Amino acid sequence: EIFRNTTVLTDEFLAHRLGLIPLTSEHVAKFEYSRDCTCDEGCRDCQIEFSLDVTCADKEISVTTADLRSALDEEGFRVVPVTSQASNQNDYEGGDDILIVKMRQGQRLHLRAHARKGFGKEHAKWIPTAGVAFEYDPDNALRHTFFEHPHMWPKSKFSKLPEGEFEADYDHEAKADTFYYTVESTGVLE
Q1: Do the Cβ atoms of 74 and 8 come closer than 8 Å?
Q2: What is the pTM of this model?
């Protein structure tokens, strides 16, 4: 729920940014999946409620994940954003905060958000990867791609060509039998 937003970002854009913040807690096992909980609309067993209320009195401020407050913080159930600098919640420091929005003088952001436990089979927002890519012909021997100037294309890290060569000889009998995957994590995989 966004109660007041006078920032330059729309409510939908802010909601999307908040939904992309990866969270972690040492007590995640104590929370129920929302589909397994006996409540109807969410309770303390299946969701965490965050609040944020920031008004810019200075010339400009950055609203970050450090401004998110949770009632569970006081009870020892600390839930923090996963950042590239902090591998677990004990390493979390203020400088590791994720930017939500920048505000100018007189602007205000007041909202309430709920975080639920889930996994990627239910919704893509719980998938712990930011990008997955694959390639099957790093040296372009199958010619599924036409490079007008092969020397201008970046060489794949999976290439087996010697230095100075940019494209393998065409092999009309070759088949794609090796696939190279690259997985980019959001930081929640340890």
Answers
A1: no
A2: 0.61
